[in-house]
Each structure stands twice: as structure tokens, then as C-alpha cells.
Design a protein that fits this description.
Layout: H1 5-35, H2 45-70, H3 73-77, H4 84-108, H5 116-193, H6 197-212, H7 223-238, E1 242-248, H8 257-276, E2 284-292, E3 295-303, H9 309-318, H10 320-331, E4 335-341, E5 344-351, H11 360-377
Parallel strand pairs: 1-2
Antiparallel strand pairs: 2-3, 3-5, 4-5
Helix pairs in contact: 1-2, 1-4, 4-5, 5-6, 7-8, 8-10
């Protein structure tokens, strides 16, 4: 098992600090008991030594138990890998603390006399360590911000790679369909040439049935969004998730379709992941895209495990996908909102003035025609 450098430096320092603190506390308690004559005058130094060692060991176990109870197993596994420079800088803090504790321990056991300048030195040393800690926290904060930006860019690159991979697979399927279509035309030509019209008609009907069962669905005239919705619908099928998609939107927008696709893709991924984590509940996702007064409204509802409310709140604050959505929506002067009702998680986005229709009458005609055509494109898991 690979051990991180930060762990090699951190944990020995932690255990050594616990040992020194335990010795100091045990010595203080033992001296207080001696001053109050808890130990008989006949007690030997060996008895006092063993009693002090036992008390120190008990305190050590208690302190270690407290630390490990505060850190769960998952939290220990999620400690990030730190750069070597940061590990070296952070190691100064526990090493300095150990030096101070050793000094206090030696002074406590009267190994040397500590003048007033020594006490002042310890005080100023602790003050310097505090200031250094503030400086280190600032550097760590800057480093974490850089890492989060790097992770966000890596996620974008991975999604772009996945997009082009899927696009390549679709292109292969299209070439295969063209080849099959050519063969079908040759078969039909043969039936017609032989005047076998019944066989030709039967062959056409079978081809229509195959097209009806095709996995490619039509949701919108916008090719990018239609492709995205098909991909997400296929993921829902593979994970046994009931998905309903309704899209009442035009083919062209005032802003780039890739921006809308990024928002929609991240929101659907968030819903899919929440449903995949469900175990004992019916998995459902509802997607609605509609145009209202030239504003695009995206509503996504999904079921989720209520036991995840705490972790979901953490993902809302720290999740890269959700941060990306909020950032893009803010850049487009849009609105983003999410809330929970019972077992359903709701996410809603409004993008302002993204469709430049010629007239209000044309917009109304478009909405009516979109509604009629969408009745056939709305799907559930059994229809996907």
C-alpha cells in the first residue's frame, strides 16, 4: 500500500505530541496529589513512577481515541495528496510544537532552570507559530483554489472527450445504416423487377417497424440538444431509471447551443447520479424544457435517497458540476434554484431573452406546434 509523505510526517508528530502532552498532564496531576498528601509518606519513588506512567498511558489512550473518533474512516481515506513543498512547509508546524512541548517537559521535571528570557522566548515562539499558521492557511487556501480549477478543467476535458467518442460511434452507426439502406433498396428493386409487390410491401412494413423501435428519438429540432437528450436517455435505460423528457424549444437560440448543452448535461448527470445511488426506491427523472416570453426554462426533477441530504448539501457547495452550472448561468444573467420536496429534488434554470422570434404571433405558433410534436417525443423508461 502506498503511503503519502504527508502521512509519514504527520502521524508520528501527532503521536509524539500526544505522548508529551500526556506526560505533562500526568506530572501535573501527580504533583497536585502529592501536595494534597494522597500518597503516603512511605511511598517509594518507584510507586510514584509507576502510578505516573499508568496515568500517562491512560491519558494517551483517551487522547488518541478522541482524535480517531473525530476522524471517520472515510475522512482518512479522502485526505488529498499534497505536493512535496507543501508537506515540508506544513511539517514545520508540528515539529515546532514538539520542540515547545519538549522544552516545557524538561522545565517541568527540573532538568534545567528556565530564566525569564526563556519564558519570554517560549511565549514569542508560540506567537510566531500562530502567525506562521495564518500564513500557511493562506497558502493552503490559494493551493486549494488552484486545485479546484484544475479539477474543473479536467472534468470539462473528459466530457469533451466522451462527447467526441460518442459522436464517432454515432458516425459509425450512420455509415452502417447507409450501407443497410443501400442493400434494402437493392432488395426492393429486385421485388419490383419481379413484380412481387406483396413481398415488397411486406418488406417495407418490416423496415418501418424497425425504425419505430430505433433507440434514436426526436425531442427537438436543435441537433446538439437532441443528441444530448438521446445520450442521457440511453444512460437512464442502462441504469433502470424511468425518464420523461418534454422539450418545447426552437432549433436556434440567441446564445450558443453548447452553453445550454453544458447546463443541461451537468444537471441531468447530477440527477442520474442521485438516482443510481438509490437502492430501495423507484427511480424517476423528469426533464422539461420550454420557452416562455423568449426565456428558456429548464426544470429537472429526480428522486433521491433522503439519507443523502447532508452529503448532498456538501456536494451543492463543493460539487464541480454544480459550480459549473451556477457559473455559466451567472455569466448569462440567468437564474438558478434548487429545492427538496419529500423524496424529490428539484433544479430549475431560467435563461433570459435567448430566442429572437420575429413576432409574438410566430412565437405562439411555434409553442403550439412544439407541443403537438412533443406528444410523440415524451418518453418513459418503457418507451425508451
Amino acid at each position: 500500500m502506498k503511503v503519502e509523505k504527508s502521512s509519514i510526517i504527520l502521524w508520528p508528530c501527532v503521536f509524539l505530541s500526544i505522548a508529551l502532552v500526556s506526560e505533562n498532564i500526568a506530572g501535573l496531576i501527580q504533583q497536585s496529589l502529592s501536595d494534597q498528601h494522597w500518597f503516603p509518606t512511605s511511598a517509594t519513588s518507584i510507586t510514584q513512577y509507576f502510578s505516573g506512567s499508568l496515568l500517562s498511558s491512560v491519558l494517551r489512550v483517551i487522547l488518541i481515541s478522541i482524535i480517531f473518533s473525530m476522524l471517520s474512516h472515510k475522512q482518512l481515506e479522502q485526505i488529498p495528496k499534497l505536493p512535496d513543498k507543501m508537506v515540508m512547509m506544513l511539517s514545520i508546524i508540528p515539529i515546532s510544537s514538539i520542540i515547545v512541548l519538549c522544552t516545557i517537559t524538561l522545565w517541568w521535571h527540573s532538568r534545567f532552570s528556565l530564566p525569564i528570557f526563556g519564558v519570554l522566548g517560549i511565549d514569542f515562539g508560540v506567537l510566531a507559530m500562530t502567525i506562521f499558521n495564518l500564513f500557511m492557511f493562506k497558502l493552503i487556501q490559494i493551493r486549494i483554489i488552484e486545485l479546484s480549477k484544475k479539477q474543473a478543467s479536467e472534468v470539462v476535458v473528459k466530457k469533451e472527450i466522451q462527447f467526441f467518442t460518442d459522436l464517432e460511434n454515432k458516425e459509425k452507426n450512420i455509415r452502417m445504416m447507409r450501407h443497410d439502406l443501400k442493400n434494402q433498396y437493392l432488395i426492393l428493386a429486385g421485388y419490383i423487377k419481379d413484380k412481387n409487390y406483396d413481398a415488397a410491401l411486406n418488406y417495407i412494413n418490416k423496415s418501418i417497424i424497425k425504425l419505430d423501435h430505433s433507440q434514436i428519438k426526436f425531442y427537438t429540432n436543435n441537433p446538439i440538444l437532441n443528441y444530448l437528450l438521446n445520450q442521457k436517455a440511453q444512460q437512464a435505460i442502462e441504469n433502470n431509471i424511468q425518464m420523461e423528457i418534454k422539450a418545447f424549444i426552437p432549433a436556434d437560440f440567441h446564445i450558443e447551443s453548447s452553453i445550454i448543452a453544458s447546463i443541461l448535461g451537468n444537471l441531468i448527470d447530477n440527477a442520474l447520479n442521485a438516482c443510481i445511488r438509490q437502492k430501495d426506491f423507484e427511480r424517476k427523472i423528469s426533464i422539461l424544457l420550454k420557452l416562455s416570453n423568449n426565456n428558456l426554462i429548464i426544470n429537472i426533477d429526480n428522486t433521491f435517497d433522503r439519507g443523502e441530504i447532508y452529503t448532498r448539501r456538501w456536494r451543492m457547495k463543493g460539487g464541480i458540476g454544480l459550480k459549473s452550472v451556477q457559473s455559466i448561468v451567472s455569466e448569462q444573467n440567468g437564474l438558478y434554484k434548487h429545492w427538496i420536496e419529500g423524496e424529490t429534488y428539484h433544479a430549475s434554470v431560467v435563461l433570459m431573452k435567448i430566442y429572437e422570434g420575429e413576432t409574438k404571433e410566430n412565437d405562439e405558433k411555434f409553442e403550439k406546434s412544439s407541443f403537438e410534436s412533443d406528444q410523440e417525443s415524451s418518453i418513459e423508461s418503457g418507451d425508451l
